[in-house]
């Protein structure tokens, strides 16, 4: 990465990398956009981030890998598929020396979209079912 300042946009973030890495980052971005067209692009934790009713995923480039952050739930749901990569509680490292698994990224994003939409649906339903406190009026 060329710059150490926090980028203001995903475009600015991607511009800071060599051309070959830029191509990978743009393809990850477009993969996410296709699965989450309503998601908002933001920079969070100095990384490209997609948000839809909360954070969906983050991604970032490093010297030897692409970090993909699908939060713990994304990693738990795809344990088998990510087992061949180095991963942590909410992160996966896709080595730059290997083909990037865009199909897996697509599946994870699709899962996260459904998860966030379901959480929002449940919150909305919960708000509708809670009744306002009854007020007692005094009769004259």
From TrEMBL:
Pfam families attached to this UniProt entry: DUF1801
Chain residue ranges for the region called Disordered: 120-140
InterPro entries from the UniProt entry: YdhG-like
Gene3D superfamilies, sorted: 3.90.1150.200
Ranges for domain YdhG-like: 24-113
Name of the protein: YdhG-like domain-containing protein
